[in-house]
Structures are given as C-alpha cells and as structure tokens.
Amino acid sequence: MSISIENKTRSFGKAEEAEFASHVSDALAFLLKQDYVDSRIRAVKAEVSVDIRLVGNDAIRKLNREYRGKDSVTDVLSFPVLDMVDGSLQADLMPYDFSYDEEENKLLPIGDVVICVERARTQAETYGHSLLREMCFLAVHSFLHLLGFDHENGRDESLMFGKQEESLRAVGLPRGDASSDRSIPDADIEAGADVSSSEQEEHPVGEMLLHCGYCALVGRPNVGKSTLLNTISGMKLAIVSHKPQTTRNNIQAIYNRDDAQVIFVDTPGIHKPQSKLAEFMVDSSFRAAKGADVVVLMADGRFNKPAGVEIRAAEMAKKLKKPIILAVNKADAVTKESLLPLIANYSQIADFAAIVPISALKDDGVEELMDVIISHLPSQPRYFPIEEVTDQSEREIAAELIREQILHYTNEEIPHGTAVEIDAFEEELKEDATDSYDRNLVRIHASIICEKDSHKSILLGKNGQMIKRIGTAARENIEKMTDCKVFLDLHVKVRKDWKNRQVFLDEFGYKKKDD
Question: Which CATH superfamily is 210-380 part of?
C-alpha cells in the first residue's frame, strides 16, 4: 500500500500529517481486502497507490473552476485513474496502468485525492468531531469513488456510506455522536465525471448548453496528428517534423464555434518504448484516451493495412468504451479507389462510429471530421472561455519551437536525445502599453539539454554555426507567436542519459501525473 501526501498548506502540521497518513493508509488497506473490490486489484503484484494533496481554499477553488466549471470552495475532489464501477474493473489491467517509484517499486495508481484542510477544519467544528476524523472521512469517501462507487448515479447510497463507516471504524475512528452523522462531502463527484441534470441546473441562467468535450488524437508516430491540430487551431501549437515521435507531451488545442467546443489532445505517437522518456510518451497517449469523450484514430492513407500500434489503439478505445472515429490522413496522396481496401481492413479491428478521409496539411475534409466529432460530444457548457485556443503557455510553446528546429537541422540520434528548458522568459512593454500583451520585446534564455559531449559539439557546430542556425529559425517562429521582437539566447548543456533518469524527466516537464 502506498499513500503519498503532498501538504501544500501550513495549517496542517507535521504531527497531524503523520497521524493522518497512518490512518488513511490503514483504511485503504482495509477497503482493498473486501470482497466487493475486484479480485484483479487485490491479486496484483504491485503496491496500490493513491496520491493525496492537502490544499487551501484558493487552490481547491481553482481546481473546481478547471475541472467542474464551478467557482466554489469544496472540501474534497477525487480523480480516478482506473475505469471501475462498484469496485469492479471495466477492462483488464494493462502494462500502461502501472508505474514505478524512485526505488523502482512497481505501483498501481488508482487515482488522486485533493482535500481542502481549511474547509475540513470548519466542518469538523460543525459536526462536533476531530479534524482527524473529518480528514479521514473525506479521504475514505474519495477512495470509494476511486474504486467506482458513486451514489450520484442513482445507485443505492447506503452501499457506499455503509462501506465508508465500516472502514473508519476499522481504523479506530467511529462516529462519535449524532452531531457527526454526515454522509456526503460537499464535492463528492469525481472531476471529469459526466454532469448530471442536477449539476446542470446550477449553471448560471443564460449559459447555453452545447456540444462540449475532449477529443484524443491517437495513432502511429508521424501520421499527421500535430499537423491536424495546427490546422484546426489556425496557429502553430504543436511542432511538426518528418522525424517520428516529435510530440512528447499532450498538447491541447481548443476549437470553438457557436454550437460547440472541442478540446483536442494531440498525443505522442504510440510506439514501443525504449527509454523512460518513451514510456512517458506512450503513457501520455493512453491516459489522454482514458480522459476523452471521443477518440480519433489517425491512419496514413498510403498504407492499407493497420499496423500493430493502430490495432492496439483500437483495442484500447474499445475497452474504454469510447466512440472511435477513423480519420484517414494524406488521402490526397492516393486515389479514392485505393482507400476502399484500407477501409475494409481497418473496419475489422474496430466498430468505427465514422470513417472520414482527410488531408490535414491541405485542410481537406477537416470540416466534415469536426462535424462527426462534435456529434459524439455530451451536451454541456464550455469548459474554456471562447477566446482561448490552447492551454499551452507561450513559454511552453517557445520551448517546443526551439526543439522543432533541432529536429530539423540535426540527424541520427541527436534530435530525440535533446530537451529544451526555458531558463527565463522576460517581457518589455511599450511605453504606452494598455495591457500585458502590448509588448515591445521578449527576452528568452533557454538551455538545450543533450546526452553526450559529442552531441554538444554537433549542436554547437563549427564556430557556433549550428546553434546560430537553430536560434535564428526558432526566433522567427517565436516572433510570429508573440507578435513582437524576440531576443533568443541559447546554451547547450550535457546531462548524461537524461532520458532514463526520472529526476531530469521531472525537471524538464515529462511527468506522468499532473501536479
């Protein structure tokens, strides 16, 4: 059993934290021993893990806005990882469901829990019991949500509430008196869960419900996912290269029209991982698909048979019970007749909701693809303001634009052995500036990280010519993004075997879980 606690508030001391950790660890262990939890979870040869973050009012308000569309302070939020209903897995456990800690212990993460300590303290006083009991109550309730128990969806409330009280009694925290007789935390709906009719009624009058949701783009490396993302957004959000495995993080583009909002997640290409960085990339793809409302599998129209990665992606979507759309990219490079055997072969690996030939590069068929995607999204308000086009910051996009030029100008093993870290991103506003985007100059200091001294020599080039070439091309693209002059200062650093060292992967932003 592995419980990781990140305390982001000073109002909960070290002694309180230690006592809390001991009780919740025992409570989760108790739950996992019960017959109502899937035997595949109980029998797994790995430690079941839960990350718990303790925060204040401002932090949980921000999370509620981001994941639930509510500007409110609640006591707890839970973020399930596995697809479970009433303790039962809805799909077999896969290799990508597991992770490893710093000591290389194998873990099975079942989800994250966020508890607002300030709110819990107030509620403990209201219900007349200890803060420890209230905190553990919230944690156990969230554990049950992570295991797929949910009184919000019409199932018997007593089943869930009985289990949480049984668990609390087992760890020595029974109900004290009538004043502590409470059953439901005020935010016991998992982040990302479907919005129920009662939830919809809470949205402000006049906030129009439309088709809104997440769409994951999956497929083999270099199939054109990033090109499609850039075409949809109308700006360069994802870098594009003829080299495979260009995308490393899940990049979001937000598409808006009057009747819909689609949040696209461009994932790294699905491939056989050869390093911890590659494992992160594949893990990102599968996690994006898990959290999406619809999955678009992109295929290359020049090859009429699905490869192993595409079969795997189709099986994944099927197990997740997600609608899957086949987008046949580069259809402009082949005849219509040649697409018929491709469609026949791909139809054998999945029951596609639709099959749409497109050319992401030429923006051909993309509008038709959008209509099909939108038709499969739930009816709910927009997640993001209509003027937003991405969740990526300029700092993050600048790092990717620099890495794009490294991919363009270097060969062999060097491109995928590099990372870019923005050391400083400074803005100089015009004298008569009226807002923060009325800039005269942006100064960027960045480090190019490579694995070997020999790679550093190549990246620098003779008399520094290569680094100048990379910097000039990257600066031009960054200027288009920032709409102002850019000063770009690049340095090359060696971090041996960084792709397999978790400390460097974390430092450079390749984390398997969001903070």
Answer: P-loop containing nucleotide triphosphate hydrolases (3.40.50.300)
